[in-house]
């Protein structure tokens, strides 16, 4: 057994301790005589798993008491539809900020359900920056303002939390940066995050919603996308993704053992700093993002000649560095440095990059 | 480690061999240096998993070439909305057959999207039987006819495949009986099944759809529920539930090793026969379902006095027999005998039931 350093953007590396725990209790969870995969979501064992995981997530993110925490299926992409379906009528307008490919996906889906105003668009910068909020143009009576705190493909991260006009709820797709550092949940109306980066296996999406925003959905929202019904049934009007939920709970416990989000933020800053510094100092590798908006989690970079890409990836694989190929829409390389990536993995990547440059620079 | 016999209705028992395989490759899948949970759905390892699982399922069910096989999220409950959203316009009418609680759920959700005609309703029998097809009243131009081949809670299974009027597609919620015996897929337009009974972990739903039924969806079907988009992107327009999909693939391979669906059907008949015979011969336990409509998979039964239920369940737990409590809506007991339940488990249950009767009968 030889584990690699996995820089995949998602599904992504999980902490080895968590995987070992899953393995060790896979055939018999805490004396239940069965796997978590096999147990009823209505039984006492799973009820305890669900309660503990919610409690741990609330503690990690300091979620205020007037927010519900939901564990749903369908990934963040399902929420691209669920957000307008739960928060608007068809005649309403929602404000979106476009900072890249994932914002664009959310916007495209929302346009099928309500009017969409682009409050700001980073297009002029080639999506290499976040527009200053002073330049944003809000709709006065918008149903909500939606933004993408971290663009997984572009590697652009908000250096601030937007401030919508009074009373307009802020909605965030936190898929690729949730749990990477503290979040001021109270400044948001809705936070959602696909699990497969910093939470657990794909097939789960965590949603944090302020209670006063429930009950606004339209008549035709599918039951499994209806936040109000989900909240009323503790995320179990139907069978939830039990095993993924359990793994998420183990990740939350691991994060608490690491010291919580302030501690992991320090480590994430250290990891990102090592990589960005190496890129900037190289005169060979290049990251296109404005320095103040560089992502802590996803670091895209290019080589001076795209014809070197295949060679770079082959050598990386031989060095035990996996998942470095950039998204097919943008090409180049991308190193995702989620919580489960140790500093040693980033150091190994930088050492490989320097060696590659020496041989091909 | 002491495994119990798990009679849970779902999530449900998985084959021990499958769990052991998951455990053994949990930290390093086939030399990839990472868990399946951690790998990109776009990479070669997962592509091979996806292709093999689809191929094995097609072989097991003899799926004709003009059907697409989709691996989606949200469980069967998501398909309760997706079926009318993908097959009707709001003015259309769909025919539903009501044979119990799960049919009713499908009907309730469908009514939010189209007109629903109850082609038949087993209400008069207390949902203890399947109405003869000669009595059904079809809508001539129905968008489809929907039925529930096996009612997980009621324990009622269709002894025949319905025959809709010419050209009207037949849609089946096969959640709790898929893979328990051969199915004539070609007589169906759409088959869907939540994974957590005979396929794998909760959070996955398998959908088999005839190609000519794609492209009929309405404008506002959420992208993650859109069969046409799912089919065009090999079930991956967004990140699928990768780990659940992988486990499903292992279950398909296990089924092939058991000899496929004819072999497992024989075993399932033997298991059900042992339990139903014991119930009928007891003069103590009782199953309410008409003999010709008794489920191979879910066997509800009652004790002569509901005050004995708690005692029965406590003794069962001590005997290593888990998950026997009936659904909260109907009470009593229920033994689910999915593919992963060995004959020895059913024999152990019957021995316990006989011993309980000797002491309390």
Mean pLDDT score of chain A: 97
Low-confidence runs of at least 5 consecutive residues of chain A: none
User: In one word, what is the shape of chain A?
Assistant: globular
Radius of gyration of chain A: 21 Å
How would you classify the quaternary structure?
homodimer
Going across the major beta sheet of chain A, what is the strand order? Answer: 2-10-9-8-5-3-4
**Approximately what portion of the residues of chain A adopt beta-strand conformation?**
5-15%
What is the number of helical segments of chain A per DSSP (H or I, 4+ residues)? 9
State the share of residues found in helices of chain A, binned by percent. 25-40%
Termini separation of chain A: 34 Å
Query: What is the H/E string of chain A?
Result: EHHEHEHEEEEEEEHHHEHEEH
Kindly state the number of beta strands of chain A.
13
């Amino acid at each position: 057994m030889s584990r690699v350093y996995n820089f995949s953007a998602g599904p992504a590396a999980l902490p080895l301790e968590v995987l070992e725990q899953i393995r060790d209790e896979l055939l018999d969870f805490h004396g239940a005589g069965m796997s978590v995969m096999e147990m009823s979501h209505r039984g006492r064992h799973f009820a305890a798993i669900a309660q503990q995981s919610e409690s741990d997530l609330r503690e990690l993110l300091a979620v205020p008491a007037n927010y519900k925490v939901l564990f749903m299926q369908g990934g963040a992409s399902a929420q691209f539809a669920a957000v307008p379906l739960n928060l608007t009528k068809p005649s309403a307008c929602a404000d979106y900020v476009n900072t890249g490919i994932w914002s664009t996906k959310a916007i495209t889906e929302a346009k099928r359900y309500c009017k969409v105003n682009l409050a700001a668009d980073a297009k002029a910068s080639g999506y290499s920056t976040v527009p200053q909020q002073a330049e944003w143009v809000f709709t006065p009576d918008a149903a909500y303002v939606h933004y993408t705190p971290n663009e997984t493909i572009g590697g652009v991260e908000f250096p601030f939390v937007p401030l919508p006009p009074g009373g307009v709820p802020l909605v965030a797709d936190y898929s690729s940066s949730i749990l990477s550092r503290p979040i001021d949940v109270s400044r948001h109306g809705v936070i959602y995050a696909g699990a497969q980066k910093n939470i657990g296996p794909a097939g789960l999406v965590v949603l944090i919603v302020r209670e006063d925003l429930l009950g606004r959905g339209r008549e035709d929202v599918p039951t499994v996308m209806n936040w109000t019904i989900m909240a009323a049934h503790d995320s179990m009007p139907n069978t939830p993704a039990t095993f993924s939920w359990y793994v998420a709970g183990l990740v939350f416990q691991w994060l608490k053992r690491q010291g919580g989000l302030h501690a992991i933020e320090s480590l994430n800053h250290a990891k990102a700093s090592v990589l960005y510094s190496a890129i900037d100092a190289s005169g060979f590798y290049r990251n296109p993002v404005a320095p103040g908006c560089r992502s802590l989690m996803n670091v895209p970079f290019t080589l001076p000649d795209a014809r070197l890409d295949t060679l770079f990836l082959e050598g990386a694989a031989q060095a035990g560095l996996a998942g470095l190929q950039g998204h097919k829409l943008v090409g180049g390389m991308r190193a995702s440095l989620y919580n489960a990536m140790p500093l040693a993995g980033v150091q190994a990547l930088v050492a490989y990059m320097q060696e590659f440059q020496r041989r091909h620079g």
